Amino acid sequence: VQLQASGGGLVQTGGSLRLSCAASGRTSSTYRMAWFRQAPGKEREFLARISFLDGAWEGGGTYYAGSVQGRFAISSDNAKNMVYLQMNSLKPEDTAVYYCAATDRGFTSPNYWGHGTLVTVSS
């Protein structure tokens, strides 16, 4: 599975961005997609995940880290094998490189990672 994240950029505090993650390759084995981020000098942080049923990119539930609950929303497009992260009410501490990741059946943690997209929130 190949993952390509996009949509990062510079935004002011309180603004919004939508990140996209395009998946290609053997996506039928993917049962979960997630977003993570890593800020300079910090460890990678889980943000949100969405689960799929029966090989289709839909039908499962979502789960969020407490730090983004209520501000970020993860969604998927079954027809396009895309996953999105809508980010609202952005804060300077949201500045980081954002990564999408895929987990195949038989794995308990992501086994595919995309290149990151940089989000910078100015104060």
E-strand count: 11
SS strand fraction: over 45%
Q: Total number of helical segments?
A: 0
Provide the low-confidence segments as ranges: none
Decide which structural class fits the backbone: mainly beta
Oligomer: single chain
Q: Could you give the order of the helices and strands? A: EEEEEEEEEEE
Rg over CA atoms, rounded to whole Å, is 14 Å
Shape: globular
Mean pLDDT over the full residue set: 93
Largest sheet: 7 strands, mixed
Please give a structural write-up.
This protein is mainly beta. The protein contains no helices and 11 strands. The strands form 2 sheets. Strands 2, 4, 5, 6, 9, 10 and 11 form a 7-stranded mixed beta sheet that branches. The mean pLDDT is 93.
Which key features would you list for this structure?
mainly beta, 4-stranded antiparallel β-sheet, globular, about 60% strand, about 120 residues, 7-stranded mixed β-sheet, 11 strands
Topology:
Blueprint: E1 2-6, E2 9-12, E3 17-24, E4 30-38, E5 45-53, E6 56-64, E7 72-77, E8 82-87, E9 96-104, E10 112-113, E11 117-122
Parallel strand pairs: 2-11
Antiparallel strand pairs: 1-3, 3-8, 4-5, 4-9, 5-6, 7-8, 9-10, 9-11
Q: What's the short story on this structure?
A:
With 123 residues, this protein is mainly β.
